Amino acid sequence: xxxxxxxxxxxxxxxxxxxxxxxxxxxxxxxxxxxxxxxxxxxxxxxxxxxxxxxxxxxxxxxxxxxxxxxxxxxxxxxxxxxxxxxxxxxxxxxxxxxxxxxxxxxxxxxxxxxxxxxxxxxxxxxxxxxxxxxxxxxxxxxxxxxxxxxxxxxxxxxxxxxxxxxxxxxxxxxxxxxxxxxxxxxxxxxxxxxxxxxxxxxxxxxxxxxxxxxxxxxxxxxxxxxxxxxxxxxxxxxxxxxxxxxxxxxxxxxxxxxxxxxxxxxxxxxxxxxxxxxxxx
Length: 282
Known about the structure:
- By secondary structure, this protein is mainly α.
- Helix content is 61%, strand content 0%.
- The protein has helices at 4-10, 26-30, 32-35, 48-77, 81-105, 110-114, 129-137, 153-163, 168-178, 185-188, 200-211, 217-248, 260-266, 273-281.
- 24% of the residues are buried.
């Protein structure tokens, strides 16, 4: 039996809301009924729940990255570099959450995964349109990747629009020009649907910033935030590749890709190349 003193400690504070007949609850606000009923195992195998939740939560974090990247690009276009840097810092923290998720998934052993892998059919992380939107926003454009979305007309059209939008690096280069630092016209008027290629004039522009930090502090800070984002994205890619190799070795991916071999090739695709190459020339 609890003493009167112990009972008083267990009672709710008098101002805590308990009547929700006409009020919104925590679960209502977050639509937890929809979220928590979306984990439908197809195999009944215990570990499939882990597989589903890791990928669902990753997609939620990706949704937030896209939300933040969109705002950061708009801020840079408006020459509001300080707010964009804060947003990029947040994105870097979100990326850390995504990176850590691979360590949780790596607790899934090859034998356990084989118990339900066939239930995935041809579904694959390669088809993640949100990951593709992030890559587009970072400047890694490839029109051929859109073919997997053709069966969804609205999504396909959204992806085509995203393909032609300026990346955050395009916005950063425009910010250089806005400050009077010259960049070749071929860069400023390039086809935005194509993957960004390194340009000497862009490297020289960033070198000007890094050699005159006091004069261009905001641009310098922006550049370093972009390097953070690029580095985290590469870490996410690497952890993805190593986790896949740990679980399925060099088997073909469920979506038909070469699996680990494909993921290793992806690692060669670098973001913001001049922000890396300038370090050698400083």
